[in-house]
Amino acid sequence: MVGLEADPWLEILRAPGRNGLTVTEVCRRYNISRKTYYSYLARYREHGVAGLAPRSRRPKSFPAQTSADIEAVVVRVRLDRPQWGARRIRTHLLRAGSVRVPAVSTVHAILRRHGLVGDGSDHVAMTASRPEQLMTTHRTPSRAGSYS
After folding, report:
1. Which residues are bridge partners to 63 per DSSP?
2. pLDDT, position 143
3. CA atoms of 79 and 89, how far apart (whole Å)
4. Of 15-19, 60-64, 112-116, 117-121, the least confident
5. Which of 6, 47, 68, 128 is within CB 3.0–4.6 Å of 133 for a Cys-Cys bond?
6. What percent of the chain has pLDDT over 90?
7. 89-98: per-residue pLDDT in tens?
8. What pTM value is reported for the model?
9. In angstroms, rounded to a whole number, what is the distance separating the alpha carbons of residues 14 and 90?
């Protein structure tokens, strides 16, 4: 019920007065919490019907986001050395004396965001068509103590 448009919420908010039900009964009927009901009621009273429209859940700021300067350096290193991956690029930045070097996962995320690495869909898993192809390099004893 959280992502509803304004019209269903308007019906829910008007239900207690119109149908003679309590707020608890309305909340049970529409499968919402009383806290949600009252938060939408407060939004309706403050902003009218426009306050019932779905809101974005995106954060207003990203304080831990990698700076544009560092991101540009990572992209430049990758373009200069296309064979280097995230781990090697991070090592290069550490050895070059960069002030704030991001984690390997962050470097990889930057490369992926700029389309400089694949998404892994071209990876081919090793599969065996016959059971005898699934051989191991070592043998282990069975319960009886013999190697099988």
Report:
1. none
2. 67
3. 11
4. 117-121
5. 128
6. 58
7. 999 999 999 8
8. 0.50
9. 58
Tell me the two tokens of residue 46: 């403050």
- Contacts for 89 with CB less than 8 Å, ≥ 6 apart: 74, 77, 78, 81, 107, 111
Helix/strand/coil (H/E/C) assignment for every residue in 81-92? CCCCCHHHHHHH
Residue 50 three-state SS: helix
For 104, the token pair is 């390997």
The three-state secondary structure class of 29 is helix
Measured in residues, the chain has a length of 148
Using the structure block, give the residue that is written with the tokens 């050895």: 95
CB 7 within 8 A of CB 1: no
Residue in the block written with tokens 């831990």:
64
d(CA 24, CA 140): 64
Q: Which pair of tokens denotes residue 73?
A: 């350096």
